[in-house]
Amino acid sequence: MVFDFESFSSRHIGPDAEETTAMLKAVGASSLDALIDEAIPARIRLKQPLNLPRGQSEHHFLSELQALASRNQVFRSFIGLGYYDCMTPSVILRNVLENPGWYTPYTPYQAEIAQGRLEALLNFQTMVRDLTAMEVANASLLDEATAAAEAMTMLARVQAKRIDAVVGPAQFFVADSVFPQTLDVLRARAEPLGIELVVGDADRAEFDDRIFGALVQTPDDAGRVRDLRDFIARARRSNVAVAVGTDLLALTLLTPPGEMGADVAYGNSQRFGVPLGYGGPHAAFFATLERHVRQAPGRIIGVSIDAHGNTAYRMALQTREQHIRREKATSNICTAQALLANIAGLYAVYHGPKGLTRIAQRVHAYAALLERELAARGVEQLNDYYFDTLRVRPRGGAPEVDRIRKSAEKLRLNFRYRDDGTINIALDETADDKDIAAILVAFTSGTSGRPSELSRPSALALPSYPSTLARTSPFLTHPVFNTHHSETQMMRYIRALERKDVGLDTSMIPLGSCTMKLNAASEMLPITWGEFNKLHPFAPVEQTEAYQQIFAELEAMLCEITGFAAVSLQPNSGAQGEFAGLMAIRQYHHDRGETHRDVVLIPASAHGTNPASAVMVGMHVVVVASTREGNIDVDDLRAKAGEYRDRLAALMVTYPSTHGVFEESIQDICAIVHQHGGQVYMDGANMNAQVGLTSPAAIGADVCHINLHKTFSIPHGGGGPGMGPIGVAAHLVPYLPGHPIVKVGGARAGHAVSAAPWGSASILLISYAYMKMLGRDGMTDATRYAILNANYLKSRLEPYFPVLYTRANGRVAHEMIFDLRPLKQASGIDELDVAKRLMDYGFHAPTVSFPVAGTLMVEPTESEAKDELDRFCEALIQIRAEIQAVIDGKADRRDNVLKNAPHTAGAIAADDWSHPYSREEAAFPLPFVRANKHWPSVGRIDNPYGDRNLMCSCPPVAEYV
Questions:
Q1: Whole-structure pTM value
Q2: Mean pLDDT over all residues of the chain?
Q3: DSSP letters along 129-169, please?
Q4: Which helix (H) or strand (E) holds 288?
Q5: C-alpha distances in angstroms, 164 versus 140, 210, 375, 562?
């Protein structure tokens, strides 16, 4: 490509024109076009270029976006419903949210080079455990409503024997005072699983043998703080397990769910320093009892030891990769909200227990002040006890509510106007005297009531709760929450954690199936602009013109890229996209009177979330075999489609295949499924090899999810956030997900799959920027160079490590699988040893043992230049020589540089060095390593030890460093 300093493409795509020529020579292709023709079957190629505008320069795009942003009206929103304005400490904003050292790393599967993020996530878990008074917490879930749904399904699992003994559908009680978005997501998840929701007043709830669990909330939908001890006690007497939705900041003042006897506590940690972002991303929290830990959804960070006996962190239990259990998985979630959980946890570290308590006291005191001032003006407040949210009833009924709404809008204030004629006003840590005065003006303007001046004394009164509600137990007692309170201390702590990790700011991350490409700074900048990140997700749509235009443009571009008729931006992860897409297919069949269609065909090579998602929508999984070449066995597919023709609902297929190959028979495969009455769901994990060259519609798919955190450049955030919008063909458009508060979705929209109507809206800006700046030609070139880079790695490394699957002509798509099984048989060195040894060279390992055990799957992306690709190749070639030394008997089979990897600075500097290889060989195996050495902070971690001695919160004080 021609390097153009004004072109964003030249900044995003790694190889320049000279490097491209050299790489094409190495792969034996006459041109880049010729290579693409050899990699992709001709019959699925797009006939025309994408009908999209040309790319914009970074400066031009940011200037235009700034002008567009001004069309968002940032009112002061006192809506609540789990979303609150907050103050992100500048030390966290600059050093975490805006820092590629925190937002570019991958999920911490290679724990030795992820100790910083793992420690921060352990802080988050400890914070949640302490504040909820539960026994164990996970490392976050996608959003509050999803967490509630996961609580319901977990309680169904732990109550399985009770459910099996029931005649008729199992029932789950839900208090009618939970947030409306939570109830809607619960409905979406319950119905396909055959769970019947019983919605009612918690005070009048009666439990019979059919009810296995219950879900209640405090503070609730109205803002009421409730003593749930009696409810939970009644439930327990009937052997009903209870989940409680709650608020972390409120729990600094209020009795926590764990002390009331709850089985689960869940909620949203957003108000701990994470911007509103028009709905996300935010880290939901989920805490439960230790006896339920093996049924808990999501990831749990645990404490173990390394090879030297030092404390080390890693993902515990099955959560290291839970969805490898496929259709037996307890959840389809394969991600978290790690970046946002880390911000929330660091917010608690920075403020500590005293600081958080002061913030909570101030919020409540302002709410109490507002109650008093409104009462003095004749406005009745209905909540007996509250934390931050008042529920008021204007005396004039509907006309008075309408007058208040109009007055508030003129003052740029948003309240929540309830169907029963009452108004909720939810305060937050940003509230001050001016806000209280403005709210009073909204209520009294145009009336004969009292003037709006405050009558309070200068000091806010401390909260006063009865003993049944007031918290008395300590929390956040660990030193980490009581040490880093000055900015200097906090800055050093954050930076110390960052230095322990490998992100894209360190070196390439060649993870197959994960597409770890550049997350450009110009794409990231807008998410911190107040016009975008200070909007409440339930603000009136007319206040969000900029967002609405961006959504419309983004949906249109994704439709053009996928070939589909419509897109829903709501799913806030790939797994949620799978669920939403399968639910659309399910509703389509049901509307046609074909409720019996409940079989999903899934290739044996598929990502584990596919069968897990199918089970979540109540479908039966039938596995389709693979050929020796790794392709779908078309004969087996045809036979099973015929066998289940009356029940066939869908095929779930990844394209290019999980093996990194464009399968020739993909259109025939889709046709077979359609002939037998099924729909085709394409997993979009590998869209980075399709954009501009082929499409899901071109291969014959009916729906796909689109991993914006892969193909479209949203950063992985050390394990999240993600976004997984779905695109659908015209006949599935009516079934796109809806929302109970903001109208979205198709004509026959199903229930919401996420808490917010557009999911994690603020990070959609990143993909929007990516697409606008690259444009038609740039996005197509990104795909072409991803394929070039992959085939270049293949050409360099294939003489040393056999490539497992290719097209008949030897070409791969954007990734490939190297087979290490023959080397293991000859040397005893396995893929895990190679993965750990790569850390000594400064690289994150490729994907290990997926989709084939004993292999490495490598994906270089388009963003890496030839020099970095060459360094990676040199590292693997040298590792191959190290393996050969073991095979030849020149290196000990047990005590060698691979089995002992990674080597820490402490191990290298130790007085005792008993290994038969030198310190130089261990630490500096190639010259380029010395120039930019990354030292793993721990040695190889003992995972079984951590699972046998499960600890999922900060280590004891005696071990704290």
A1: 0.96
A2: 94
A3: HHHHT-SEE-S-BS-HHHHHHHHHHHHHHHTHHHHHT-SS-
A4: strand 284-288
A5: 30, 10, 53, 43
Question: Residue 800, Cβ neighbours under 10 Å: how many?
Answer: 17
Q: At CA 198, angle to CA 195 and CA 201, rounded to 5?
A: 155
Which helix (H) or strand (E) segment is 35 a member of? helix 32-39
* Sign of torsion over alpha carbons 82, 87, 91, 96: positive
Report the alpha-carbon distance of residue 17 to residue 826 in Å, rounded: 41
The C-alpha angle with vertex 376 and arms to 372 and 378, in degrees rounded to 5, equals: 115
State which amino acid sits at residue 116: G
Helices (DSSP H) in 377-422: which residue ranges?
397-410
> What's the rounded mean pLDDT across residues 451-472?
78
Q: Which two tokens stand for residue 420?
A: 């029963």
Whole-Å CA distances, 100 to 10, 332, 520, 714: 20, 28, 9, 12
707-747 pLDDT, tens digit each: 999 999 999 999 999 999 999 999 999 999 999 999 999 88
Contact yes or no for 788/23 (Cβ under 8 A): yes
Q: 287 forms bridges with which residues in the sheet? A: 137, 265
Six-digit token pair at 545? Answer: 């013109």
Position 604 pLDDT exceeds 60: yes
At a CB cut-off of 8 Å and minimum separation 6, what does 487 contact?
90, 91
Q: What pLDDT score was predicted for residue 505? A: 96
pLDDT tens across 466-477, in order? 999 999 999 999
With a cut of 70, say whether residue 495 has pLDDT above it. yes
**String of DSSP letters for 414-432:** E-EE-TTS-EEEE--TT--
**Residue 182 in tokens:** 């939570």
- CA contacts within 13 A on the Cβ side of 41: 18
Looking at residue 6, what is its pLDDT? Answer: 74
Rounded distance, CA 569 to CA 577, Å? 9
Q: What's the Cα-to-Cα distance from 12 to each of 640, 777, 861, 862, 864, rounded to whole Å?
A: 44, 13, 11, 8, 9
Q: Phi/psi of residue 270, each to 5°?
A: -55, -40
The pLDDT value given to residue 609: 84
Contact 906, 308 (CB under 8 A): yes
pLDDT in tens, 182-201: 999 999 999 999 999 999 99
Cα–Cα distance, 382 to 375 (Å, whole number) = 11
Contact 651, 678 (CB under 8 A): yes
Q: Measured between alpha carbons, how far is residue 338 from residues 25, 134, 400 in Å?
A: 42, 21, 45
Which helix (DSSP H) or strand (DSSP E) does residue 564 occupy? none
Q: Where do the H-state alpha helices sit in 94-245?
A: 100-103, 115-132, 144-158, 160-164, 180-190, 229-237
Q: What is the pLDDT of residues 567-587, one digit of tens each?
A: 999 999 999 999 999 999 999
Rounded to 5°, angle at Cα 475 from 469 and 480: 160
